[in-house]
Amino acid sequence: xxxxxxxxxxxxxxxxxxxxxxxxxxxxxxxxxxxxxxxxxxxxxxxxxxxxxxxxxxxxxxxxxxxxxxxxxxxxxxxxxxxxxxxxxxxxxxxxxxxxxxxxxxxxxxxxxxxxxxxxxxxxxxxxxxxxxxxxxxxxxxxxxxxxxxxxxxxxxxxxxxxxxxxxxxxxxxxxxxxxxxxxxxxxxxxxxxxxxxxxxxxxxxxxxxxxxxxxxxxxxxxxxxxxxxxxxxxxxxxxxxxxxxxxxxxxxxxxxxxxxx
Length: 262
Fold this sequence. Notes:
This protein is α/β, with parallel strands linked by helices. The protein contains ten helices and nine strands.
């Protein structure tokens, strides 16, 4: 298959691109950094710039006749209190996590329609299912990706194009280095420091990126997709059905204990 993956300069994206390249697929990585690899080709691209996105697709089609898979992996985290977040920080986050993903889908869909098949994975988060303390806008951006995914599934199904959201838990990557971190005001500083330390420890103890790559390989082999797939350690994955089943106040109390807010 010809596979496009965004955000391949490090972490999940790099591991996934190399893994699928080793399996014999033709893999193109779209990231702002030009990464050298024997298993995939990097096309330096800022996916928030639609001109660069369109140029990247043109570059792919110079050597390939089709695009079978798009994996929208590029994204960033954001931490801080809702009250402290600035317009600039919020827009930067949504521009990458939501607009960038949409621009990538818009770029590949004409090719997929013409070939009457294609698969798109939008990488989301377990955190899209609930508002996480001090990660409210990250949760919101991924929730937006989820709803766009649900909507576009109806729109592209006549051409046998499948789209899903893949909700990940904490993955052992350097995500902490690339998060947008707001200036934390005095009222929130003490509790934020506590939650932030816990947040980073969860990442340090997270799932290995290779396990994500193996899961995605199995996902690509499925003939039909649901709208949502969840891949995380049990302690995080269980939070999703509990959110659906439990009364809101009871669930919030559980979340306070999990995040050591009580």
